[in-house]
Amino acid sequence: MKKLILATLIGASSLLGIEIPKPTIFDKRVVYTDFNKDDVFQIYGKNGYTTVVQFAPDEVILDMASGFSQGWDFQDRRNYIFIKPKSYESTFAVDEFGETVNKKSIIEPTPDEWKTNLIVLTNKREYIFNLDLNVEQNSFFKFTFSYPADEKAKEDMQLALMKKEVEKQEVQTELNRTAIPRNWDYYMNINPESENISPSFAYDDGQFTYLGFDSTKDIPSVFLYENEKESILNNHIKKEGNYDVLVIQKTAKQIVLRSGKRIVGILNKSFGVNTLEEPKTTNSPLIKREVINAK
């Protein structure tokens, strides 16, 4: 019969789902546990001793409530709570005849009477504790929470950021890939006092036009000259050795470079001679350029 009762009690206890924290290998009175929002956490107090509960560093305690606040003292400091059992004064007593009389008496903590719970609300979480006064084993001096779900989310975010940075560097490497020249047949007409906007070299790869400028040159604005009219050409600048290369996203027979009153005309004498079989939008076969919100 005793064995049957014991098994029943053990089963009932496991159904309660109370999380018993794990002690350190150094001292059983210092304990740790992983936070789970659906767990009730067990704290063993002892008369004359204080237990400190430590939450996450970025948590602030907003509110607390207990079923037996007369018998327990709770003090919060930032992300810490200090818990200790306490005696309390009663003004009622029962005489030998069973009558209630006004009489002051001190009620001392006892294991059976001091069982209660504690609800703690912070700026990030809510916690439920089961409080017991235990004289048969060591009380908890320090109770520290760890947060594996938060750590996992933090690690996942860091990995995602690292992956994004690696992908960004890979894309930049592909974008900076040196083009394979297909046509060097370019000539320039440089207006007076316009030498410092004239490119040091010019070529195209059948899709884009590349104008190289050394450190003594200024980067001009670029225009397509066609049917005696000028229109702006899309372009970007990339570094290639000691040169800033103006990448014009088109090949053209005539290009005009302007900066204030300075003007340089570029003539492509082999325009349309050595074209690509399949148009491309970047130097890399892995990257395609798309125009977003084009009108």
Describe the protein in words.
There is one protein chain. The N terminus is likely disordered. The strands form 5 sheets. The chain has a 6-stranded mixed beta sheet, with no helix packed on it. It is mainly β and 295 residues long. 15% of the residues lie in helices and 41% in strands. The chain contains 2 helices and 22 strands. A hairpin with a 2-residue loop joins strand 19 and strand 20.
What is the compact description of this entry?
With 295 residues, this protein is mainly β. The chain has 2 helices and 22 strands.
Share of helix, binned:
10-25%
Q: Which series of helices and strands comes N to C?
A: HEEEEEEEEEEEEEHEEEEEEEEE
The SS-based structural class is: mainly beta
Rough outline: rod-shaped
Tell me the strand percentage band: 35-45%
Main sheet properties: 6 strands, mixed
Give the tally of β-strands: 22
Q: Kindly, what is the distance between the CA atoms of the first and last residues, rounded to a whole number of angstroms?
A: 86 Å
Q: Within the largest sheet, what's the order of strands?
A: 2-3-13-5-8-7
How many helical elements? Answer: 2
Gyration radius, in Å: 40 Å
- As residue ranges, the low-confidence spans are 1-15
The oligomerization state is single chain
Mean pLDDT, all residues: 84
